[in-house]
Amino acid sequence: MESSARLKNIGLRGVPVADTKISYIDGQKGILLYRGFRIEELVAKSSFIETAYLLLNGSLPKAKDLQAFSNEMLAGRQLPGFIHDSLKGWPKHADSMDVLQASIPMLAMADPELGNETRDANVHKAIRLLARIPAVIAAWHRIRQDHEPLPPKEDLPHAANFLWQLTGQQPDSEMAHDLDVSLILQAEHTFNASTFACREVVSTRAHMYAGVAAGVGALSGSLHGGANARVMELLLHLEEKGKSEKDMAAWVRQQIDSGERIMGMGHPVYKTFDPRAGILKKIAGRLAAEAANENRYKMLARMEEEAVKEFERRGKRGIKANVDFYSGLVYSLMSIPLDLMTPLFVMALSTGWCAHIIEEKFAEAQGKPALYRPQAEYVGDYCGPVGCVYQPIDKR
């Protein structure tokens, strides 16, 4: 009884539910591995497309394999016309995550291999999803602004093409590279809530698109996705109140004293620094300097510094900035709207989702359980332990 009560209180946090070869986190040392490779090395030497190949296939590609993978991604960028037609009929005030989640089943309808459950077919489905999710986000943003969606450009890499389809402007190569880096950093993160949702759904033998739609739904919740946008909202709020870098020490103390959270600070897994946050911090600082708009960056960096000191002073060590703390500012400096920041998270994390879906689908062939069916502990009802006696409505 004590054990089950403890599990209910922690929401399965830290409870092993499956094996995986996809990624590994050492929260005590601040280490994140994709298929055995340190995230820092992938950011420095790889690209999002190559990282996607690694996550989906289990190893780094040879040149011919990467070219074939890239060509398939290019071929998958074009959205079917009926999806554009559907997007044009939706309310322009609709939440972008709802739009994205509703679009995933439509993408399923256009997939010629939907009913094919071989491993190769599932990799092809994943490639089409990775190519088309950015196209849906960009098309929706343009449609709600009364603009026509833009066709993809074959001569642009993945991140650069997204920025083009979103804004209609040829992106700066350095900015496109920064976006590529951020996609690598957020492509996979073991069994977070949305990844678990994907795996749980496809454990029923539902298709990949059903699993990804579940992942989008889980990520839309305020306890999971969207923290980067909320950090930006906080910065804008502080700016409106005339706050600056010098005000952050007092503001941090006030937040902690009043029991309020500082969005983007702390992580349920990392007990030291989040290795992704430092990389994004450098990108944010450089983009802010290039835009001659450093006030928000300085305010955020000082907020981080003061929060770490204040938490440590109160005996709460290990609470440091996570990946969301600087990613919102990075996206903002790329002129990406607040409500598209969580959909951009989907652009990246859907890579890991698809890798986990494939792993889950083929776990059964390795003699592992294929259907998630956790047990709940019934705690009774207002009638007592023997149950209720139905009374006619005139006698209640």
Could you explain how this protein is built, in words?
By secondary structure, this protein is mainly α. It folds into two domains: 2-223 and 340-366, Citrate Synthase, domain 1; 227-333, Cytochrome P450-Terp, domain 2 (Cytochrome p450-Terp, domain 2, Orthogonal Bundle), CATH 1.10.230.10. Helices cover 56% and strands 3% of the residues. It contains 17 helices and three strands. The protein has helices at 2-10, 39-45, 48-57, 63-75, 81-88, 96-109, 119-144, 158-167, 173-185, 193-202, 208-219, 227-240, 248-257, 275-290, 295-313, 323-333, 341-361, and strands at 23-26, 31-34, 37-38. A three-stranded antiparallel sheet has the order 1-2-3. A hairpin with a 4-residue loop joins strand 1 and strand 2. The longest helix is centred in the N-terminal third of the chain and has 26 residues, at 119-144. The chain starts with a helix and ends in a 35-residue tail after the last helix. The mean pLDDT is 92.
Question: What structural keywords apply?
Answer:
single chain, 396 residues, mainly alpha, Citrate Synthase, domain 1, Cytochrome p450-Terp, domain 2, 2 domains, 17 helices, 56% helix, 3% strand
* Largest sheet report: 3 strands, antiparallel
Regarding quaternary structure, what we see is single chain
- CATH topology name of the largest domain, in short, is Citrate Synthase, domain 1
Based on helices, strands and strand pairing, what is the structural class? mainly alpha
Count of distinct structural domains? 2
Question: How many β strands by DSSP?
Answer: 3
**Into which percentage range does the β-strand content fall?**
under 5%
If helices are DSSP runs of H or I spanning 4 or more residues, what is the number of helices? Answer: 17
CATH H level, superfamily name of the largest domain: Citrate Synthase, domain 1
